[in-house]
Amino acid sequence: MKLNLSEMKNKEQWISKGYQLSTYDRDKMVKKTLESPKWIHFGAGNIFRGFPATLMQNLLENNIEDTGIIVSEGFDFDIIDKIYTPHDNLSLLVTLNSDGSIDKKIVDSLAASYKCDYQFGDDWAKLKEFFAAKSLQMISFTITEKGYSLVDSNNNYYKVAEEDFANGLGKAKLFLSKLTELVYHRYKTSDWPVALVSMDNCSHNGEKLENAVKTIAQKWVENNFIEKEFLTYLDTKVSFPWSMIDKITPRPDASVVEMLKKDGFEDTDIIVTDKNTWIAPFVNAEKPQYLVIEDDFPNGRIALDKSGVFFTSVDTVNKVEKMKVCTCLNPLHTTLAVFGCLLSHKLISEEMKDPQLKKLVEIIGYEEGMKVVVDPKIIEPKAFIDEVLNIRFPNPFMPDTPQRIACDTSQKLSIRFGETIKAYAKSDELDVQSLKFVPLVYAAWLRYLMGINDDGEKFEISPDPLLDVVTPYVSNIKLGDKGPFDKQLKPLLENDKIFGVNLYEVGLSDLVLSYFSEMVANKNAIRETLKKYLD
């Protein structure tokens, strides 16, 4: 059983093994899509194949839409060459259910795939043709949060961005510059409106995309590469809807490979590209998924609401994001990540069997966080967190690790926990000093920065852009030290960019320092501290 169109003709071999196949006329769909494209997507990785691509497939299956998706990759061209082309733009979605069962679905809603770069002349010409199509309604993106940035941590433009500003059309190196050039081509050829929709898991994603495109356009106007009227087109005919996406699609997992091999499925090679993309002909993913998009589509929109997508106001999108990121998922993920590394756990699901850690995330979520949760109305916060803690995190078939989730923690604490502290501080009914377990996570992160686990053994701290800044504060602290640690940790605890608040000003510094002192006292002190406060 190989993943290609020729093998798909023998439907019985797939159906007999429990694979779900599409029933629509794929050839007809491809022809119609290339003639009258509605949806182009950039970012051909796992989240796209495991989520947005399946949304369109549902619409095709139910005769709600008759065109598919044109996908393009502007960063890692190996994805197209090694995954899409050899497998005729087909993909296999393996849904890992929390009860131990799996669902297998062939995804074939992708009409064509292209590499977005001038060096691939035919591909670039086709993309320009599609961008000029009056039928085009949506251009979407899953290019990761850093894919939208033109500036470094000091707010200075990257050198490559400055080169793109100076060189103009036809010479761009950044994907965002090439995107802006393609939108400019639409303006020059058809002048029709279109929506540019970021589907990346980052705050205010639509705003980030809009700022990047308009900055590049403005620089090109200033350098006389394009006319200033293009800026008016961007302001009046191009929308940049915000969105909130939520679905865990980890790297392809070896255990899934073994399950597929037992079926006789042969295309199980996991590829690691030169740009460190982990990808395979299949995508393994959890079942729960959410996509909420601001309803701002100036050229009409695809009926994704009939495939489970929420179309709503930008205010509601923002509230859904805050509910998830500040209370119902991300803070709990980070809690498990930090403590998981310290306690040498290897899977998030494994941590949910740890009685103290399970109770800890339940208290942070249901008790401390839920008192100030933002309720978006379209998704009920209690039901969302129930699903997270009872279905998503405990799923033993989701190969997600605390070490992966612990990446970039210094960038996450202010949003995932700091917003809760701020809400308590602003409240007339709540006392910020009643928070007992959010400060425990802060203290655990300080202990984590020592790079020594609860057994007293060294471990590798996950990548983080501020490690060189924050680790010196704990570099001279050793297990068994008694403190006090106030003098050396105070500058860090006062850093509101990291913690969201100045912990001294809100009155939580003493508690954080006390917890830290307990957890650094000796080997096994972290476990002893958890038992002390949670048993």
Overall description:
The chain has 535 residues and is an alpha/beta fold. It folds into two domains: 5-312, NAD(P)-binding Rossmann-like Domain (Rossmann fold, 3-Layer(aba) Sandwich), CATH 3.40.50.720; 316-534, N-(1-d-carboxylethyl)-l-norvaline Dehydrogenase, domain 2, CATH 1.10.1040.10. The chain is 44% helix and 11% strand. The protein contains 25 helices and 15 strands. The protein has helices spanning 5-8, 11-15, 26-35, 46-50, 52-61, 78-84, 121-131, 159-167, 175-189, 205-222, 229-237, 254-263, 314-328, 330-342, 348-351, 355-369, 381-392, 402-405, 413-426, 438-448, 467-470, 486-493, 496-499, 509-519, 525-534, and strands spanning 19-20, 39-42, 69-73, 91-96, 102-107, 110-115, 138-141, 194-198, 238-239, 243-246, 271-272, 278-279, 282-285, 290-294, 310-312. The strands form four sheets. Strands 6-3-2-7-8-9 form a six-stranded parallel β-sheet, with helices on both faces. The chain starts with a helix and ends with a helix. The mean pLDDT is 96.
